[in-house]
Amino acid sequence: MYRHIQALQQVSRRTLSTSALRQVENKVPHKQKHFQEDNGIPIHLKGGASDAILYRATMALTILGSAYVIYELVCAAFPKKKE
């Protein structure tokens, strides 16, 4: 049992001590500057091509889903007659 606790302490100590070595550049100020620019592009499309693709996919799924709901409501409102 003691070996497990000692191993856990060693792993946590190693994780804490090596995390300071891998510092990452702070990109937040650059992103803030990019998204606060007044260039006529809507905020939900300022991320580039991936944002445009996600936006169009969301709109397509919304339209298709709405059409399917309307179709199902019409089918439920006018059931097929049994012969």
From TrEMBL:
Belongs to the cytochrome c oxidase VIIa family. It is a single-pass membrane protein. It is found in: Mitochondrion inner membrane. It comes from the Eukaryota. The keyword Flavoprotein does not apply. Pfam families: COX7a. This is Cytochrome c oxidase subunit 7A2, mitochondrial. Keywords: Acetylation, Membrane, Mitochondrion, Mitochondrion inner membrane, Oxidoreductase, Transit peptide, Transmembrane, Transmembrane helix. The keyword Methyltransferase does not apply. CDD domains: Cyt_c_Oxidase_VIIa. GO terms for molecular function: oxidoreductase activity. InterPro entries: COX7a, Cyt_c_oxidase_su7a_sf, Cytc_oxidase_su7a_met. Pathway: Energy metabolism; oxidative phosphorylation. It comes from Hucho hucho. GO terms for cellular component: mitochondrial inner membrane; respiratory chain complex IV. One of its GO terms (biological process) is mitochondrial electron transport, cytochrome c to oxygen. Its main location: mitochondrion. The chain crosses the membrane at residues 53-78.
